[in-house]
Amino acid sequence: MKYLVRDKIFAIGDDYWIEDEQGRQAFLVDGKALRLRDTLELKDPQGRVLVTLRQKLLSLRDAMTIERDGEPLATIRKKRLSLLRDHYRVALADGTELDVSGRILDHEFAIEYDGELLAHVSRRWFRVRETYAVDVIRDDADTSLLIAVTVCVIRMAEKEREDG
C-alpha cells in the first residue's frame, strides 16, 4: 500500500494529512508547537494518537524517539560513518533494529529489517515535486511505525542540513 505525503509542510505547528493510494485520509501528522522540544503525533482519521515522535534533548548525537501509549517504541539515530548514502539505525524496544538507507533528502530510501525490505520511500512515482510515497511492502508491517520512521529521518536530515 502506498501512502502519499506532501513534502513542503514539515514545519512544527503545522498539521497535515497523509493519504492512501485512493486519496483517503489515512494519518494526520499533528505538529505540537509550543513545546520545549520537537513533538509530533501521528493520528488515525478518527483523531486517536497512534504514535508520538519526539526529538531527544541533551543527546550527544541527534536522535528522535517514537512512543506508543506512552511507552518507548523506537529510537532513531544517524550512523556515524556514511559515505555515499545516508544511514539511520532504528533501535526498537524489543531489541531488534531497522536499517534506513538511501538518499534521505532526495526522498529515495529504503527501510529494512534484517535485509528484508519493509518500505520504500520515493518521489519517482510522482510528477508533483512536493509529493513522495511511502510504499509499505509487507501486509503485516506496522504501517504507523514505518510512516513515523520516515517522518523522523527526513526531519533529522533536514535539521542536519540547516545546522551544517
Can you walk through the features of this model?
The chain is mostly beta strands and 164 residues long. 13% of the residues lie in helices and 48% in strands. A twelve-stranded antiparallel beta barrel has the order 1-2-3-4-5-6-7-8-9-10-11-12. The model has no long low-confidence stretch (mean pLDDT 84).
Task: Please specify the SSE layout and strand pairing.
Elements: E1 2-6, E2 15-20, E3 25-32, E4 39-43, E5 49-55, E6 63-68, E7 71-78, E8 86-92, E9 97-103, E10 108-113, E11 116-122, E12 131-136, H1 143-163
Antiparallel strand pairs: 1-2, 1-12, 2-3, 3-4, 4-5, 5-6, 6-7, 7-8, 8-9, 9-10, 10-11, 11-12
Concise overview:
This protein is mostly beta strands and 164 residues long. The protein is 13% helix and 48% strand. It has one helix at residues 143-163; strands at 2-6, 15-20, 25-32, 39-43, 49-55, 63-68, 71-78, 86-92, 97-103, 108-113, 116-122, 131-136.
List keywords for this structure.
single chain; 164 residues; mainly beta; 12-stranded antiparallel beta barrel; 12 strands
Task: Specify the biggest β-sheet.
Answer: 12 strands, antiparallel, barrel
Strand content: over 45%
Shape from CA axes? globular
- Alpha-carbon distance between the termini? 35 Å
By DSSP, the count of extended strands is 12
Find the structural class using helix and strand composition.
mainly beta
Rg over alpha carbons: 15 Å
Model regions low in confidence, pLDDT < 50 over at least 5 residues: none
User: If you average the pLDDT, what whole number results?
Assistant: 84
Number of helices: 1
Instruction: Walk across the major sheet and give the strand order.
Output: 1-2-3-4-5-6-7-8-9-10-11-12
Helix % is: 10-25%
